[in-house]
Design goal:
It is built from 9 helices and 8 strands. With 239 residues, it is an alpha/beta fold. It folds into 2 domains: 4-117, Zincin-like (2-Layer Sandwich), CATH 3.30.2010; 132-238, 2-Layer Sandwich (Zincin-like), CATH 3.30.2010.10. Strands 1-3-2 form a 3-stranded mixed sheet, covered by helices on one side. A 3-stranded mixed sheet has the order 4-6-5, with helices on one face. The chain has a two-stranded antiparallel ribbon with strand order 7-8. Helix 6 crosses helix 7 (187-202). The longest helix is centred in the last third of the chain and has 16 residues, at 187-202.
Length: 239
């Protein structure tokens, strides 16, 4: 029986393919392991994918993790294989992987990767009914003393009902769902969604260990300063 130190030393000398095969055997000890092919890909984010096809496991991993510590690849193997075979991933592997991605150097690397490789497709800020640009300037004057630098603004390419707006820090862009650009949607509701996203510029995401705190207490308190806060939220619920 190997102790923790001996096992960790053994992992250090494993190839990524060997790591995935070992984890496969841990999850399905009575099943003959398939062949494994691993490819590090130039994705625009930290996503990785796995599929079983023709008796072979095909694993595509973001190249941001190329050269990552073996223990991180082991954690990723548990996560991906767990999803593939619908097995619950032990908390230790989820936390280890998330903590690694939340390291300051990794967050910086991922930010640069999204900037360089990601494409932000948005429509012009002047919609059929509402002009996000003029609305931004009005909110900027009313709530931020006109001091907030204007990011890229526009309508999304899809009329999403689940994500009414979002702020993309990598591209410094605020995007609203075109579901809001309709005459039956009150201006107050659109202003509130835009104001909410503007607050993400004022209060950036905080990282606390494995946690990402998107809406800090300061964020929530500032959000309540919006005139018609409760009314706007009720309008959005009716949408």
């Amino acid at each position: 029986m190997l102790n923790g130190v001996a096992l960790e030393s053994l992992i250090l000398f494993e190839t990524p393919e060997q790591i995935f095969l070992r984890v496969f055997h841990e999850l399905k000890p009575r099943t003959t392991p398939p062949a494994v092919s691993i490819e590090f890909c130039r994705f625009a984010n930290a996503n990785s994918f796995i599929r079983l096809e023709d008796g072979r496991l095909h694993v595509r991993i973001t190249d941001v993790l190329e050269g990552a510590p073996a223990l991180i690849l082991e954690a990723l193997a548990h996560i991906l294989l767990g999803k593939l075979y619908r097995r619950e991933t032990a908390r230790i592997y989820n936390e280890r992987y998330r903590r690694y991605l939340n390291r300051k150097d990794m967050r910086r690397t991922l930010h640069l990767v999204r900037q360089a490789r990601g494409r932000k497709r948005i429509l012009a800020p002047q919609g059929r009914v509402y002009d996000i640009e003029s609305m931004f300037e009005d909110l900027n004057f009313r709530y931020f003393h006109g001091l907030m630098a204007r990011p890229a603004l526009g309508w999304g390419t899809r009329a999403s009902r689940t994500t009414l707006g979002h702020y993309d820090a990598s591209h410094n862009a605020i995007v609203l769902s075109t579901i809001l650009d309709r005459e039956k949607v009150p201006r107050l509701a659109v202003e509130y969604v835009l104001f909410h996203e503007m607050l993400h510029l004022r209060f950036p995401v905080e990282h606390r260990g494995v946690r990402r705190c998107v809406h800090t207490p300061e964020f929530k308190e500032a959000e309540k300063q919006f005139e018609g806060f409760a009314e706007a939220k009720q309008m959005l619920k009716r949408l």
